[in-house]
Design brief:
Elements lengths: L6 H13 L21 E5 L2 E4 L4 E4 L14 H11 L10 H13 L5 E5 L2 H16 L3 E5 L17 H4 L10 H4 L2 E4 L4 H10 L4 E6 L15 H12 L2 E5 L11 H6 L5 E5 L9 E5 L1 H4 L18 H14 L4 H23 L4 E5 L2 E5 L8 H4 L4 H13 L2 E2 L8 E2 L6 H14 L5
Parallel strand pairs: 3-13, 5-6, 5-7, 7-8, 8-9
Antiparallel strand pairs: 1-2, 2-3, 4-10, 9-10, 11-12, 12-14
Length: 431
């Protein structure tokens, strides 16, 4: 499959660019950082996606993380169909909202109360507003390269697409708003301590991806998150874990279960919608009760708790809750990681792979990669070459060096072996 058929995708991309900015509805999809024409996907099933030209790929993008069961999982599809027959949106409370919130709270005990929204961006934005309203303080601390959606406050030195396109500080964000966002270095507690010392009594919250996936996967250094927990408690600030990617991914209870750290607020998305648009934020009851209509902090959403997304999320979480699910997922991820490590090591090409659970990134550099600055040392041209060679061998990985790859429960041993073989070819090692 080295020479992909792309005629239909190229035609659709040209058409899209006439009516959609850049031809895409989310920047990284444009393939700008790797070159070439983005693939227009026609359908997906299990571990594969198929484009409009009929090319089928083993998929590790996983819709950027949500498809942990695989595409078009039968239980999720059945749940959506059942909900669809009853209506698509009510703008009113439903029993399903309660059921999904209960499942989230059972998995994340720190989320004493939960509010559903329609995206991870909306959840993070709302959690930050709540933190400011609850504490009466304006400033927040985030980390260079961490992405918390595209709300104004979060686009200061952000990751994901902002990092890919070299625009960590977006035009359109007022300077007087951006000044309330303080930026520290991930895995460098001293940089956080320094900000608190300079802004005594002004910081409402520290928001962090406990396992960043938006500058590539970067594990937290031992003790780093524990130190954040202690510092925020001492200073009267809230600790917000953005687990939009890591939630239900690195463990059923996310990174906070894996690491044994309870934040004040948690932000979720992706997996909790079973592939449909959804987000959630939650935390201690006294904090959450500051939200309207109980408290003064306003937050609302017409489509929040959408019955289709809720049904899909319940079905997905019920599957993930089954005994042995994460053991199986871990075994698949271990097998792939070991195979790829062997290939990269023998190739002689400088690479460094970070992995936490079923998410990973291979950086084209010698490493180690521990923060934004070290991630940025990666050879993006080498990654682009690797990306296209993998694509030509039927393997779909992220069209950006600075994104995570995801293993799903639908990936088979055959899929993983084929991926390892493709990597051997793509990195230029044939021995």
């Amino acid at each position: 499959m080295d020479r992909l058929k792309t005629k239909k995708s190229r035609k659709l991309f040209q058409e899209a660019m006439k009516i959609i900015p850049g031809g895409v509805n989310s920047p990284v999809r444009a393939f700008r950082s790797v070159g070439g024409t983005p693939l227009f996907i026609a359908r997906a099933k299990g571990a594969t996606v198929t484009d409009v030209d009929g090319n089928t790929f083993i998929d590790y993008v996983s819709s950027w993380g949500p498809m942990i069961l695989g595409h078009a999982d039968s239980k999720v599809v059945s749940a959506i169909r059942s909900a669809l027959g009853k209506g698509t949106s009510y703008g009113a409370p439903t029993e399903g909202e309660i059921e999904l919130a209960k499942r989230i709270r059972n998995a994340f005990p720190s989320m004493g109360k939960v509010r559903l929204v329609s995206s991870g961006t909306e959840a993070a934005m709302s959690a930050v507003r709540l933190a400011r309203g609850f504490t009466g303080r304006d400033k927040i601390v985030k980390f260079e390269g961490c992405y918390h959606g595209h709300a104004d406050s979060m686009l200061v030195k952000a990751g994901s697409g902002a990092l890919t396109f070299g625009q960590p500080d977006s035009p359109g964000v007022p300077a007087d708003l951006a000044q309330h966002t303080l930026t520290a270095t991930f895995n460098d507690f001293v940089s956080v301590r320094r900000l608190f010392d300079k802004n005594k009594g002004q910081i409402s919250a520290v928001i962090v991806e406990p396992v960043p996936g938006n500058m590539g996967v970067i594990p937290p250094a031992p003790g780093f998150l524990d130190s954040l927990r202690k510092l925020t408690s001492q200073e009267g600030a809230l600790l917000i874990f953005d687990e939009v990617i890591s939630g239900f991914r690195v463990a059923f209870g996310g990174a906070q279960e894996l690491l044994g750290i309870a934040p004040d607020l948690t932000v979720l998305g992706k997996i909790i919608g079973g592939g449909l648009p959804v987000g959630a934020f939650g935390g201690r009851g006294d904090i959450m009760d500051a939200l309207s209509p109980v408290g003064p902090v306003y937050q609302a959403g017409t489509l929040s708790g959408n019955p289709l997304a809720v049904a899909a999320g319940i079905a997905c979480l019920d599957e993930l809750a089954k005994k042995g699910t994460y053991r199986k997922l871990g075994e698949k991820a271990d097998y792939l990681a070991e195979g790829l490590h062997g290939v990269f090591e023998k190739s002689g090409v400088p690479t460094w792979t970070n992995r936490v659970g079923s998410m990973w990134t291979t950086f084209f550099q010698r490493g180690p990669v521990v923060d934004y600055a070290t991630a940025k040392r990666s050879d993006t041209a080498a990654y682009a070459k690797y990306f296209h060679r993998m694509l030509g061998r039927g393997i779909y990985i992220a069209p950006s060096q600075f994104e995570a790859g995801f293993v799903s429960l639908a990936h088979t041993r055959k899929d993983l072996d084929r991926t390892i073989a493709a990597a051997k070819y793509s990195i230029g090692f044939s021995g």
